[in-house]
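pasting for ref. prot 1 ->
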Amino acid sequence: MGPVEAALPGTLAVFSTRRGGVSRPPWDEMNASYSVGDDPEAVAENRRRLFGGLGVDPDGVASCG
C-alpha cells in the first residue's frame, strides 16, 4: 500500500504507459485526457481499456496530467 492509498482508504493510485491505446498522433496511443484536443471517441476507448483492465468504473476516476 502506498501513501495515497493509506491516506485515502478505497483509493487506487496508478501510473500507466501509453501502450495499447487507439489515439492517433500527436497523442498516440493511450491518451486518457479529454482536455488536450484528442478525438473524444478515442479517449473514451482508451479509458475503457485502461480502467477496464484495472476493474475500475471510468466515471469514478480522477486524473491529472
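and prot 2 ->
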Amino acid sequence: MDRRNFIKTVSALAAAYNFKLPYRAKAAELSLADGAANAPGFPDIVAVMGGSPVEMLDRALAAAGGLGRFVKAGQKVLVKPNIGWDKTPEEGANTTPALVKHIIQLCFKQGAKEVSVFDNTCNQWQACYRNSQIEAAVKEAGGTMLMAHEESYYSEIDLPRGLTLKKAKVHKAWLESDVIINIPILKHHGGARMTAAMKNLMGVVWDRRFYHRADLHQCIADFTTIDKKPTLNIIDAYNVMMRNGPRGVSTADIATKKMLLLSTDMVAIDTAAARILDAQPEEIAYIAKAAAHNTGSNDLSKLKIERITI
C-alpha cells in the first residue's frame, strides 16, 4: 500500500466513524527514554505505514509512550503471535518473525525476567514453529518457545459472562504471565471473515473446535471477557492475505500493505483492521458481539487515533 492509499484507507475510517486525524502526542507527554508518559495524552490506536515491520513497531511504541508503559523489570511476558500454519513468512499465514524477534528483544531491554512464545497450531506444531521461522527468531532473541500440543498444558477457567463459551481450557502460560503481548497477522478467514487481535486468541485455548461447532463469532467475543486480557495488541499488516484465509493458496493471495496497528483495546484495533482488509466492521459479527460485552470499543469516533507515515 502506497502513501496515497494509506491516507485514503485511514481517511475512509475517519469519514465513516467521524474520528479526528491525525492525533499526535505532544513531546511533553512522552518520555521515550524511560517510556513514562501522561496517560491521558496517549492515542487509543496507533496506525503506522510505510516502513519495515520493525521500523513501524518502533514508531508505534514511541507514539504510545514506549514499551516501558507495559513491561516492567522482573515481569514474565508472554508474546502470542500467529504460528498456526506450516507456511513460510512469504506466504502471509503467520506473524512476521522479525516482528516477534524485535518485540522480545525490547521486552528484555525493559528488564523482563522471561519472555515466552507459543501457539496451539492448526498444522503439525513442530513444522509450524520451524517453517514459520518464528521458533528461530524467538531463540535468537533469547526467548523461550513453549509447547501447546497437549491438553496437560491447559487449565480450565470459567467465563461467567460468556453467552455460548462458558468455560475454556487456557494455556497455563497465559494464566501465569504478568504481561501479554498479542501480535497477530492480519488476514482473511473463511469462517470469521477476518483474523486479527480477537481471533488470534483462539490459539491459547485447547478446544478450538468447540468454537466452530457452537457459534464461532459468539465464542470469539465471549473469550474477550476473560479476566486476564492482552496488555497490548499489535497487528502485523505488512503482507496481508486478502482471500483464501486462514491458510492461503499462494502468494497471489497476498497484498503488500506495509501497515501496523497498535492498541490496548482488542475491539477497537479489530474495528480499524477490518478496513485494511477491505471489509466493513459490520461484516465481522464478533466485533459487535465483543463490544456488547463492554470489553472494548467499536465506536472509533470516540477514540484518539494517531497516523504515522514513514
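Residues 207 and 228 are 19 Å apart (CA to CA).
Residues 14-39 have pLDDT under 50 and may be disordered.
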